[in-house]
Design a protein that fits this description.
By secondary structure, the protein is mainly alpha-helical. The chain has eight helices and no strands. The protein has two domains: 80 residues, no CATH class; 123 residues, no CATH class.
Amino acid sequence: MRKVRGVFFQVLVLCGIKAAVHFFGLERLSINPLFSAMVASTIFLLGFLLNGVLTDFKESEKIPAELATCLQTLNLEVRAIQVYHPEIQIAAALAAVTGLGQSLLDWLKERITTEQMLARHTQTHADVVRVAVHFKGDASTLRGRLMQDLAVILAKVNRVQTIRDTTFVPLVYWMADIAAVLLFAGLVMARAESLPESVFFLAVIFFIVILLLRLIDDIDNPFGLSDLDSAEDVSIELLEKTVDRLRTAAK
């Protein structure tokens, strides 16, 4: 809602500028078919940019669920070791897995740094290995699954960090911003016989273009959970519920 209110404010400012330009007789451009082409090309460019950032967003939506699956599988596999060998103490490993899950939540909400997250993963890996080495069964299966789950978590952490650090092609962003500014300038300076009609149609175009620019900027970082102005972020609810279940099971 804050983002939409900001867009409305910007539209009102631009409409006010249009009214002032009309009142002082500063409109110098005539409406012609090139204006329609200019509007269409700008919308097309924004649509291309939106489609590009949506690709990463759709991929990012899967990551919290994959992290939750790995954590739950790790917990089950560690418990399976004690089924085969009741004498093995697995409490430390289970606590490490739960702590890893909580660290993932804190990291996604940017409460801890990536270095702290990686340190927690390394510590959890060490705790799980200490338990796994006591398993006297077929080590190639159970131990392999434990290491694979930890490797998947590490891969997802690196992928999230890459998505956070990498923006869509910067040149396309500049093109979209420049095209939007030129479009706004042209529409404000265009001659209008009826000011109310002109302001209405301009307000609609301004609103769509500005909202698209804001939306693209927001979606470009699907993990902006710590940003209060970010409205379009992937859901981590499943990961939160999984960590809660692990914490309850460990008691």
